[in-house]
Specification:
- GO terms for molecular function: ATP binding; ATP-dependent DNA damage sensor activity; mismatched DNA binding.
- Keywords: ATP-binding, DNA-binding, Membrane, Nucleotide-binding, Transmembrane, Transmembrane helix.
- It holds the Pfam family MutS_V.
- By secondary structure, the chain is α/β, with parallel strands linked by helices.
- It folds into 3 domains: 123 residues, no CATH class; 140 residues, no CATH class; 202 residues, P-loop containing nucleotide triphosphate hydrolases (Rossmann fold, 3-Layer(aba) Sandwich).
- The chain has 18 helices and 13 strands.
- The longest helix has 42 residues.
- It is elongated, with a radius of gyration of 31 Å.
- The termini are far apart.
């Protein structure tokens, strides 16, 4: 077991180093289809590549519990978390990181589960305090301890001294066993689930507990009770024990005593483990990148930053860019040549918002954000099955965003990349202008990238651009944002570089 634990710890360290270096292909992440359908088809997941093999959700997923994983996904996607016990304060990630320099790392190690595969999620159930088994058998609860002691004594004496009624005793115990067999199996199922959870999370329980001695007793007793369930694999010994002494009832009684003594402690630690498990991906992000800074909530609804960068860019490739203050109703139009960094800049802002909204630190400085509702329209999808074109898909999404903005108490923030690509330039300009006007009325903060320079003439827009540089006759990109509208294009240069002839370039 110790060797296996050491191997798991070594694997953890190697994966952490891969994250630091940006070598994401070395990390074993989930396939897209392994995410819940609601997550992989979420607009944010599609537009920000969150569920791809090298997407953020997989790269930084450290969760090992089913509930922790689901809560982590919802927290990052800014979806509501139904269980109020699993909701966390915005400062909780900061609190964990601030405890000491190695606390976050030790939490990760304690959460390692030696007998699970990477990306496998395990269950950690709560203790169900309501006991329906004895509620339906109040007389049996009082009667069975007497009968369960008397019966085996009589059977042993009967065999020794040839006492009468032995078959009747066995028949009576058999009828009793059949009467509670179905419900006792449910109790055994709970025992096995609790015992399995105690074994898997023993180190974590003890590490997080304030009363460690009591916690060890709790784990030891339920683990011992769980060992008894091994007899269920062999039906004959299990039947004989119940015929002799109503064995299941004694174990169910032991479970009840354990619950009465430890239920509150177990449930408190279980919630703490699930919450911590769901927060550790964000804690780990901050632990790996101590240069990341926590964002500041801006009550007036402003989004701004002195600098920010996409969290999945390796350190060697990071180019930090500022974000000019954007208030409700503002529009930023970003123009620029192909591959210059326009869409990456939008995704950097969106990812920084999601990290800040999750309570995680942000790669950048002085990032300020409001209570927000994020929308993206970066990668439209058509549907052959529904007969929906790219254009109509965009229109439906935009209509939904506009309607949502009307009923929101949060600042709507919308990211648009090359809006309404599926129509001609004249109609696209008119439609886009009117849509942006409506969004301004709805007090939506809009970020828009476009190659259509006519759109940049919209009067209330804040204009920025990216461009390429000529170095030795070759295109070179510095990925720095600049004020104003782009004056350069590079589509023809790219075509010629790839061997496609352009015969009438002057036209």
């Amino acid at each position: 077991m110790q060797i296996q634990y050491a191997k798991k710890t070594n694997s953890l360290i190697l994966e952490e180093l891969a994250k630091l270096r940006g070598e994401f292909k070395k990390i074993k992440t989930r396939e897209i289809w392994e995410y819940p359908e609601s997550v992989r088809n979420h607009p944010l997941s599609i537009d920000l590549d969150l569920c791809t093999k090298q997407g953020f959700l997989g790269i930084y997923d450290t969760t090992i519990t089913e509930v922790g994983f689901q809560t982590y996904l919802k927290r990052f996607l800014q979806e509501p978390i139904e269980d109020p016990k699993l909701q966390s304060r915005a400062e909780e990630v900061r609190d964990i990181l601030n405890k000491n320099s190695t606390y976050a790392y030790h939490l990760l190690r304690k959460f390692l589960v030696p007998d699970t595969e990477p990306n496998e999620k395990v269950s950690l159930p709560p203790v169900q305090k309501e006991d329906s088994f004895w509620k339906k058998r109040r007389f049996l609860k009082v009667f069975f301890p007497i009968w369960g002691v008397f019966s085996p004594i009589y059977l042993v004496l009967g065999l020794l001294f040839d006492l009468p009624l032995l078959p009747l005793f066995l028949l009576g115990n058999g009828i009793l066993f059949v009467s509670y067999r179905r419900d006792s199996l449910k109790q055994w199922k709970e025992i096995k689930a609790l015992s399995s959870g105690a074994t898997r999370f023993q180190k974590t329980f003890i590490y997080l507990a304030k009363e460690r001695k009591t916690t060890k007793q709790m784990i030891g007793q339920i683990s011992s009770l769980g060992d008894s369930s091994e007899l269920l694999i062999s039906p004959l010994p299990h039947l004989i024990l119940n015929l002799l002494c109503l064995w299941d009832l004694w174990k169910i009684k032991s479970l009840e005593k354990w619950k009465n003594k430890f239920a509150n402690l177990w449930n408190d630690l279980q919630i703490q483990i699930l919450k911590t498990d769901s927060l550790l991906p964000f804690v780990n992000f901050g632990f790996l990148f101590p240069e990341a800074r926590f964002a500041e909530l801006a009550p007036q609804g402003t989004i701004s930053a002195d600098s920010l960068v996409h969290p999945l860019l390796p350190k060697s490739s990071r180019v930090f860019n500022p974000l000019t203050p954007m208030e409700p109703g503002d529009l930023m139009i970003v123009t620029g040549s192909n591959m210059s960094g326009k869409t990456t800049y939008l995704r950097s802002i969106a990812m920084s918002l999601l990290l800040a909204g999750s309570g995680a630190p942000v790669l950048g400085s002085n990032f300020k954000f409001p209570k927000f509702k994020i929308h993206t329209l970066i990668r439209s999808q058509d549907s052959m099955e529904d007969g929906v074109s790219f254009f109509y898909s965009e229109v439906r999404r935009l209509s939904s965003i506009i309607q949502t903005a009307e009923h929101s108490d949060q600042v709507p923030v919308l990211f648009l990349d090359e809006i309404l690509k599926g129509t001609n330039s004249k109609e696209r300009y008119i439609a886009t202008r009117e849509i942006l006007s409506v969004l301004r009325e709805k007090q939506t903060i809009v970020f828009l990238t476009t190659h259509d320079l006519k759109l940049a003439e919209i009067s209330w827009a804040k204009r920025f651009h990216f461009t390429e540089l000529e170095v030795g006759g070759q295109m070179d990109f510095d990925y720095k944002i600049r004020n104003g509208v782009s004056g350069s294009t590079n589509a023809l240069k790219i075509l010629k570089k790839e061997g496609i002839p352009i015969r009438n370039e002057e036209e």
